[in-house]
Design goal:
The protein is mainly alpha-helical. The protein is built from four helices and two strands. It is 49% helix and 9% strand. The chain has a two-stranded parallel sheet with strand order 1-2.
């Protein structure tokens, strides 16, 4: 269950700097800006289920994010 407290950006950056894997960010995503940040640092995907369920990310925001991916 997501905690909606923000993603572990530093951890994801560290992992990405040491490997060539495709990393999917999971946990802590609480707003659409978090998804943009994960994309910017190089994550290949982001799990945002609880943020949508809790109404913190609207579907139209998500659609715009996907269209710009």
């Amino acid at each position: 269950d997501g905690m909606l407290e923000g993603a572990s950006t530093d951890l994801y950056k560290e992992i990405l700097s040491q490997t060539s894997i495709q990393l999917v960010a999971s946990g802590g995503i609480s707003k659409i800006e978090d998804a943009y940040e994960m994309k910017e640092i190089g994550c290949s995907g982001t799990i945002i289920g609880k943020a949508i369920y809790e109404g913190r990310i609207e579907l139209k925001e998500l659609q715009k994010f996907i269209e710009n991916a």
